[in-house]
Design brief:
mainly alpha; 15 helices; globular
């Protein structure tokens, strides 16, 4: 959580820096696309790699690389020579690091605690990971408001260094299981076939896709709401992101209250619908306190859903396929973000951020309705066959 909070402080600092350099919603969305494009391109291969190498060693290497990237951005800003293309290039490099890190990190959880405790451990890991995704930007906004973007990049680098030390202290190494003798492509196909043949995983990935592409574009649409709708500065940005963080903490407590059980599908449907509805309501706000309330609920409902999806996939995946199954989670969770970020930036550039929020929230709700219809009809068919 230390490293991930720092990473998201860096991401929000990047967003604010891009607006300072360009004042362009389109270029801001493009940065998000560049940062998450490697996840879209290479997630499946990185999942196969995570099942083949020592996971702890891989994570240590990625954290060192992430820290170097953060310190590089801090040096560029502090020197006064930073340009837009510098930020774009380093954002893409950060995406390459993350795509190697996430499948190994996610699948290491089960190996640390054993099968009997995996549900509780996954819930804690999911809650902390996704809370950091929202708490980090909140802290980053507050730091930017008082000290500027450079300290946020430095804190991110220090967080990565702390994570390296922590991972080196772990007794679990994540030693790979015996290989089948097949190549990486064959391993990738095996993981994909298992996911496609498991209806619960298909549903989970569908819900995750909806909130990822339509809801979790916080680092793009929140600064646009702050600057173009509420007409506030970095301090207002930080406070609104802190409201998201408070919602995330509430969501984390909710996931923990579920205990060592797989989240009910009805709860997942409800959380997806409520997260998209919160986005539609956010499009109508014109004052600070309304935005704060809606962002709180968006963070709460969104985090409960994402943490539930992570828990469900970890429990559904066999031990030997967990890295590859979780690479699909990484692919959908982060890989479609470039598309969502691009759409938010492009629509906001042309028609304004309020229209973009309304379109995204409505599209997400329609997607949830379609998934509910598919799942309900599938249950009916299964019941008829059993009868």
């Amino acid at each position: 959580m230390i490293a991930q909070t720092g990473n998201w402080m860096q991401t929000v600092a990047q967003s604010w820096l891009v607006l300072q350099l360009t004042s362009s919603p389109f270029k801001l969305g493009l940065i998000g696309s560049l940062q998450f494009a490697p996840i879209l391109l290479f997630s499946l291969a990185s999942g196969a790699l995570a099942d083949r190498v020592q996971k702890r060693r891989l994570i240590v290497i990625t954290q060192m690389a992430q820290g170097g990237q953060a310190f590089g951005l801090a040096a560029l800003v502090a020197s006064g020579h930073v340009e837009y293309w510098h930020v774009a290039l380093l954002a893409f490099c950060s995406g390459l690091v993350n795509v190697l890190d996430q499948p190994a990190r996610q699948s290491l959880v089960a190996e640390m605690v054993g099968r009997a405790n995996v549900a509780s451990a996954v819930a804690l890991n999911s809650a902390s990971f996704n809370a950091a995704r929202i708490v980090g930007p909140g802290l980053g906004g507050l730091v930017i408001a008082r000290y500027g973007v450079t300290p946020a990049f430095i804190v991110s680098g220090l967080g990565s260094a702390a994570a390296v030390i922590i991972f080196l202290m772990l007794r679990t190494h994540g030693v790979p299981r015996a290989r089948s003798g097949d190549g990486v492509l064959a391993d990738m196909r095996t993981g994909i076939r298992y996911a496609l043949r498991t209806p619960e995983i298909r549903l989970t990935l569908g819900l995750l896709f909806l909130v990822s592409i339509f809801v979790f574009n916080f680092t793009v649409y929140v600064p646009l709401v702050v600057r173009t709708v509420l007409h506030l500065g970095a301090e207002g940005f930080g406070l609104l992101m802190a409201c998201l963080g408070l919602g995330a903490v509430t969501g984390a407590l909710t996931v923990g209250a579920l205990g060592a059980r797989r989240p009910p599908i009805t709860v997942m449907f409800a959380m997806a619908g409520l997260a998209c509805s919160s986005l539609v309501l956010l499009s109508a706000v014109r004052v600070f306190w309304q935005a704060a309330i809606m962002l709180y609920f968006t963070g709460l409902f969104g985090l409960v859903l994402v943490a539930s999806c992570n828990t469900a996939m970890q429990l559904l995946a066999p031990d030997e396929l967990r890295g590859r199954v979780m690479s699909l989670y990484t692919l959908v969770w982060g890989g479609v973000f470039p598309i969502g970020a691009f759409l938010v930036g492009a629509v906001s550039e042309r028609w304004g951020v309020s229209t973009s929020l309304r379109v995204n929230g409505t599209a997400g709700l329609l997607g949830v309705i379609l998934l509910v219809g598919w799942w309900t009809s599938r249950d009916t068919i299964v019941q008829r066959r059993e009868a």
